[in-house]
Design a protein that fits this description.
By secondary structure, this protein is α+β, with helices and mostly antiparallel strands. Helix content is about 45%, strand content about 20%.
């Protein structure tokens, strides 16, 4: 706790969640292992999960009241340090929420983190951070930094005054940490009073999860045979309309897929006119709507509730990503090679 020595006696209270868990484990006799400020092993995972899920803002506020009563005494006559008419209101100043991935071997942790540094340096782009922070409107003021502490690197991305960072903690675990300094960004719906602390936790947990999803590779195996066939065959709507499958041999269809995979459309969604701006003048409104319907009827694109915007579904994103990758690196090169052989034979 930090207390100002002058009116209006602004006070700051700092609470470490790992230290709180450590105290609870000691009280309940649960064994654990720590590496610096990290748990690497806990004998009773159920208790750990329960403590995290059931954490309430009142736990922190009760500790604040305890220490405030020590330093700001009431009913002490001439020795009182504060009038009964004066009180403090508590607001969140900075909230940090971390997610840890523990590795059995430091060798694998170091190897994986090197891949993160190498492959995902573009996460700091505003559109990607907008998606990670779950904002309802794009924010364009961002920056990324990389620092080396001892022998470990830390990559940190800022969006306005909020940040998310990823670093190799002590060589044994990967930590992703969201820091919230500004809860007023569009779509956050977070309030400053400390009684909303639990909402900060769940929001930060969601940011960490979205960050880790961004790091993860595309899992093609999630596309089952039925899902794959759905994009190869015509489908019949409830009204009996026949909707043809997307034609990946068509250059215009491939151009649309490339536009749909843009990070800003992935994060914020898109409208018909947004796509036409990127695709060119030859794309008319009806043409875009027709091609989009092929994807909508198959569940690759959904309409955002209460708006004119559309957005790719997780299945749609994986299928489009697979399709563009497959065409660019396998089908097209093979076709080009076969054409070259045919030309040589005819010559």
């Amino acid at each position: 706790m930090k207390i100002s020595s002058y009116l209006p006696f602004v006070s700051e209270f700092y609470m470490n969640g790992h230290n709180y868990l450590k105290q609870q484990f000691d009280l309940q006799g649960i064994s654990y292992k720590m590496n610096e400020n990290s748990f690497t092993e806990v004998s009773n995972i159920a208790v750990l999960e329960s403590l995290v899920k059931e954490f309430q803002p009142s736990i922190a506020l009760n500790r604040i009241d305890y220490w405030m009563n020590v330093f700001f005494r009431f009913d002490k006559g001439n020795k009182s340090t504060r009038s009964k008419l004066l009180s403090h209101k508590w607001f969140t100043y900075q909230t940090e929420i971390s997610t840890n991935i523990i590795f059995k071997s430091g060798k694998f942790a170091n190897s994986f983190f090197q891949r993160v540094l190498h492959k995902h340096h573009t996460i700091g782009l505003p559109d990607r951070l907008t998606e990670i922070f779950g904002l309802s409107k794009s924010v364009h003021h961002s920056k990324s930094t990389q620092h080396v502490y001892s022998v470990q690197a830390c990559i940190k991305h800022w969006l306005e005054k909020n940040s998310v960072k990823c670093y190799n903690k002590s060589g044994c675990l990967l930590r992703v940490e969201t820091t919230i300094n500004n809860p007023d960004l569009p779509g956050l719906k977070l309030k400053k009073p400390a009684c909303n602390l639990q909402a900060y936790y769940w929001y930060g947990h969601g940011c960490n999860s979205r960050y880790l999803n961004t790091l993860s590779d595309i899992e093609i195996s999630s596309l089952t045979q039925d899902v794959y066939e759905k994009y190869q065959q015509p489908v019949i709507t409830e009204k009996g309309q026949r909707i043809p499958a997307p034609d990946l041999r068509n250059k215009k269809q491939m151009a649309l897929i490339q536009v749909l995979l843009r990070t800003n459309f992935r994060a914020m969604g898109f409208r018909n006119k947004d796509l036409r701006k990127k695709l060119g003048k030859e794309w008319k409104t009806a043409k875009v709507a027709y091609e989009l319907r092929k994807l909508r009827e198959r569940g690759a694109v959904k309409k955002l509730q209460g708006s004119q915007y559309y957005q790719l579904t997780q299945e749609g994103y994986i299928w489009l990503y697979y399709s563009i990758f497959n065409y660019s690196y396998f089908i097209n090169p093979l076709l080009s090679a076969s054409c070259k052989k045919a030309i040589k034979k005819s010559a």
